[in-house]
Specification:
Length: about 160
């Protein structure tokens, strides 16, 4: 193995940080730098080796994708949606309640926005009223797009560090 500092061929190389750069060097040259133990990259490192940058970016991207993952949430105007759908079907609150085996108060509370239906109730209402009570949202999308029109390489490197 070739020491990246002095070029000597040695059996073992040590990973050290020298002036902010990670280098694989021989025992002798290791004295000039700070040895890196394990996989942790010390704060002194200013220039990351490409494979580390790449790995971190990939991780970041995965995170970002997760971040942007669509999530199904209850529509904010569910009281309106339920009420209008119910009226469209010509059902009273009581009739609707009966259909989904709930109490009338449950329907009125939902329509007044005093109660958020749980998953089970959402499903029942959707089925009974032919509506969608959930919408796909990417909650964090705005936050992300605000900060970055387009990612520059500089941004990526900053992210990676
Ligand atoms: Zn050396």
């Amino acid at each position: 193995m070739i020491c990246e500092l002095c070029g000597r061929d040695v059996p073992r190389l040590k990973k050290v940080v020298i002036e902010g750069v990670i280098m694989n060097v021989c025992n002798e040259c290791a004295k000039f730098g700070k040895e890196i133990k394990g996989n942790e990259i010390p704060k002194e490192v200013k220039y990351l080796p490409p494979e580390v940058v790449k790995e971190r970016l990939e991780k970041k991207h995965r995170r970002r994708r997760d971040y942007l993952d669509e999530e199904e949430v209850l529509v904010e105007d569910y009281p309106e949606v339920v009420r209008r759908a119910r009226e469209r079907k010509g059902l009273t609150q009581e009739e609707l309640a009966k259909r989904i085996l709930e109490k009338k108060t449950v329907i009125s509370k939902i329509e007044r926005g005093e109660m958020r239906p749980d998953e089970k109730l959402i499903k029942k209402l959707e089925k009974a009223l032919d509506i969608k009570l959930k919408e796909k949202v990417a909650v964090t999308y705005k936050k992300d797009s605000k900060s970055s029109g387009a990612l520059t390489l500089g941004d990526l490197l900053k992210d990676a560090l």
